[in-house]
Each structure stands twice: as C-alpha cells, then as structure tokens.
Amino acid sequence: MVTRRFFALTLAASSVFAASPALAQEQAGYASNHFNPSERGSQWFVLDSLDMRGHGRLAIGIVNDYSYRSLVGYHADGDVTSVVRNQYYAHLGGSVLLADRFRLALNVPLQVYGDGNTATINGVVHRPASDVAVGDVRVSADARLFGEKGDAATMALGAELMLPAGSTAAYTGDGQPRVLPRLLFAGEASSFIYAAKAGFMVRPRDEAWGNGYIGNSVVYAASIGAQLANKKLVVGPEIFGSTVTADSRAFEKRTTPLEVLLGVHYNVGENIRLGAGVGTALVRGYGAPVARGLLSLEWVPGNPKHEVAAAPVEDRDGDGVPDCEDACGWVKGPRSSDPAKNGCPPADADGDGIPDEVDACPLAVGPATADAKTNGCPLDADADGIPDSEDACPRERGKRSLDPKLNGCAEHDQDGDGILDTDDACPGVAGVKTTNPKTNGCPDLDRDKDGVPNDVDACPDEPGKADPDPKKNGCPKAFLDKGVIKITEQVRFKTASAEIVPGKDSQEILDAVLSVLKAHPEVKHVRVEGHTDDRGAPAKNKALSKARAETVAKWLTAHGIEKTRVSAEGFGEEKPIEPNTTEAGRTANRRVEFHVEQGQAGGNAR
Question: In sequence order, what are the residues at sequence separation of 6 or more whose Cβ sits closer than 8 angstroms to the Cβ of residue 151?
Fold first, then answer.
C-alpha cells in the first residue's frame, strides 16, 4: 500500500512540473544610449564644426545628458515597460589639435543616475538599469581632408573606438569593443552654418534584443543653424539616427532610432563656451527617448590667427633703424633724413644749444647755467608755476606755500587723518577735524566733552565732574559699563540696619541709578547685590546684606521702575573687594552693587 502511494505522488508531481513553463532566461544589457556627443570644441552637440586650426590647441569640457524612457520593452498585449526609464550621463572629454589638420580626442561617459523596470519580452527577462556606472570610453582620431573653419565646405575622415569600460547591467556598455569609421562635413557662409556625418558602426554583438536587434549599423546625422551676435551664438536643430543592417533589420522601427534636438551654443569671452539643448524621438527605436535635455560647459581657447611671419631685420642696437640704414649701428639713435646721422645719437637732442654731454636735461629745453645740475634744464622743470630757484620740490608739481620747505610741493597728509599737512596743527599724529586752527588735525583730548582730559579721566567715554580722587575723576555718579551699573559713591545705611541714612549723598547715588535704568529700557532685569565686611556672625551679615539690597530694590520700584526689572540678593562677607584688615578695606566691602542680568548687548549678562 505504501509503495503504491509513493508512485502515485511521484506521478502527480511529475505532471505538475511538466505542465509548468520553463524558467525564463535573462539577457544582458548593452550600450543603449543613442546620444554620442561630438568632440570637444564643436559648436554642435552631435555634429562637428571641424575647427582644426592650431597646433597643440586643447579643448576640454563636460556634456550633461538626461534622457527619459530611452529603452522601452514592447509586450504582445500592447503594454510597454521602461527597462531604462531615467538616465543621466556626464560626458567628460577633451581634444588636442596637431599641425592644423589632425585631431585626437577622448570621451569618458559617466552614468550618474539610472533606473528602470524589469520587463519580460518574448520569454526573456530584461533587468532594469542600475544606478552609477562608467560607460564605454571613446577614443577617436580625425584628419582634415580639405577646407578649414570658415570655408563653405570642409571635410574630415576619422574613426571612433569604443573601449568596453561600461556595464551591461547598467546599460552603459556592450561588454565588447566597437569601431565607428566616419566621414565628417561642415561649412558656413555669412551667418549660415551646417554640418553632416555618416559612418558605419562595427558591433561584435550580433543578437536579437527584445523586439529589436543589436548589430552592425549605419550612423548618420545633419544640422543647420544660424551664427548670431558676431558669431558668438549658434542656434539650430540637429537630427541624428542609425539603423541596424545585421540580420536584414535595416529601417525596421525598433532598430532605427531617430532623434531631433534644438541646441544653443554661446561663447562667453575668449575661452568659455556654454550650450543647452532639448530633444525628442522622431522614430521610437531602441535608444531614442521620449525626451532629452543637454547642458554643456567647455574650455575652448581662441582660434589662432594665421599670419605670414616677416623676414627678420638686423638691428644690433635696437633703435628701430635697420643696420643696413644705420650710420651708427652699435649706438642707439633716432632716424634722420641725413644718411650720415641716421640712427646716431644727436649732439643736442632737445635743440637748446647745449651739448648733450653737458646738458643736465638733454631732452628738455632749458637755459645754460653755471650749475652742472641745472645746466640746460627748464626754469620750472615740473611746470607748476613756481620757479625752480624757489621750488622745494622742483621735480614734483605742487602748490605755492609760505613755508619754504613746502613751497612747490604736492599736498601731503603724513598721518593719514584726512587733513592736509598744510592745515594740520598736528601733522605727525592722526586727529580730528575742527574749526580751530590750533587743534585742527590733533587728537580728541576730551572724548566725552566733560572738561576732564582723556589722560586723567577715569571715565573718558562717560561725562562727569572733576574729582580729586583719580578713580572718580570725570565719572558720573552712576553709568552702565559691561553688564554693571557702576556707582562712584556707596549708598549709606545705618549701623547694623537696612535703613538708608537720610541725606544728599545716598539720594544722589540712587537718583543716578534710577536715571540709568530709565535711560536704558533695553535693560530688562537688574540684580541688586548687598555685601558686608567680616565683622559679626556670617549668617547675620548675609541676612543684613539681603535686607539692604531689598531696601534699594524697593526704593527703585517706588520711584517708577517695574518690579519685574529688579531683584535683590545678599552675599554678606562672601565677596570682598578689599582685605578686611583695615578700616578702609572694610568700608569698601560694605557696599551695594547693580548687575545687569538681562538686556544689555542683546543677551544675559550674568
């Protein structure tokens, strides 16, 4: 019984597997992008303007190519699947010209981004394009047969070799080399410009792919456009396509991609060329996308000018007179109509009657003098209207001055304060402009204008009164400085009490602090701190200092300061500013301080 069941199960399983379709095969991708950029230096994206002038002239650049749905699989039921949906290439390349006729070039395509979907066509699975990959590297060589840039017709013959550096999984390479012999045409007449290309792609991969075919193919392209803006701008369409000749597939729709694009190229300055273009497929063969966008940036040096070199002329002394005409071939001299003097230095170059060998100014007319330094020199060498005999600067134009040392000299400002030395009361030190000739150009000696000179003013930027105490001289009773409302006198309290001693002194200090707070509404909060000396119990001292700080805070709020702007804190004997070993030190430590906690300089001052 067991044996019968085993054979029954085996037979059932065999029938199930026999009824199942065979596993689908997968096919490798290939270099599917139909766009093959022109060599760097061209004024087209696909075609070549055949500018081969110069020897060793280099052109480099990048062509950015984005295509949408360039490789689509067609199913029997009419549905389509984008095997390659989005594809973005950066073509890096360069070219070099040799002997005005030959060109070598390199193009390295880099797929920066690619994606797509899996498609099963005719039972074969085609995986989607992957992301980043290198394409097949292109090496090319061309030779100009006749004509040159600017002629009505120019032709060149060359070939491209695609090296298998790309990835079949990313659809950036065939996995095998390809060769494209090609014939290039170009020409222009006035503002009209055109180009054409024909070639035959030898492709070792000879196989069906999807509903199409990969193999040898004919390649062709043509363009026509206009040169504008003094030939700096080229605008025109380009059409390019191919058709597979292998397996009798020529001009079938899937094997004959055909695209058109409209491009613009513009020369910025002498060496930079920018390009932009958009295109679409005219025939949706494999590789021709629904839409394509192009951007290019190239460095293309200015075209060389062909000039016939003049025969070298011998001129040993370099005076511009050829040796065959120079009567003084070893000494520089001017040209003369007298053959005996032609090219010879004149005996009196300025014609003032004074021989050059004794003329102190041989190229400027002047009178004879007994002074060898001025003999033959003008009476006013710098032509500033001041005779040289009075001019303190005879070789420099200047103005007349009552000071003999400055007469005839240019105006100067040696301290750089914008006040000419002639008007500057302190020409050697930078200062400020004033209406007083005695102080004009001198440093501002009293910045806060309080009558106390800066050098003795303890608060040079805050106006105050003179005081015999150097630490208080020129300072106001209270002022805001770096997060603290500083006071020059202390609020007085009764001994061992938080009650303020009545009188003028404390009242003036509190009024001054009140004025500062009212003048600075940006100060949002002030911490009033109370401090004592070290006499007495620390706990009592701290309580007393807190009470005194609260008394001052209450006084300020009673006189118009919002309660939210003031708080009080007592530190007792914890923060002395002087040693408590002397009466003066203890007096200094018995104090009230005002610290800005919020508001000054846009932040917290704690």
Answer: 187, 188
- State mean pLDDT over 492-519: 90
DSSP H helices in 231-364:
none
C-alpha closest to that of 75 among 39, 119, 42, 118: 119
Taking domain 478-602, whether its CATH number is 3.40.50.720 is answered by: no
Instruction: Please give the structure tokens belonging to residue 485.
Output: 């409302």
Could you tell me which CATH class the domain 47-299 is placed in? mainly beta
DSSP structural state of residue 493 = B
Could you give the residue range(s) of every CATH 3.30.1330.60 domain in the chain? 478-602
- Which residues have CB under 8 Å from 103's CB, separation 6+? 39, 52, 95, 96, 97, 140, 141, 142, 143, 156, 158
Q: Which one-letter amino acid corresponds to residue 21?
A: P
> Residue 2 — very low, low, confident or very high, per pLDDT cuts 50/70/90?
very low
The pLDDT tens digits of the residues spanning 390-449 come to 888 888 888 888 888 888 887 777 777 778 777 877 887 787 787 777 767 777 777 778
Smallest Cα–Cα separation from 427: which of 407, 398, 452, 406? 406
Q: Structure pTM?
A: 0.50
What is the pLDDT averaged over residues 484-512?
89
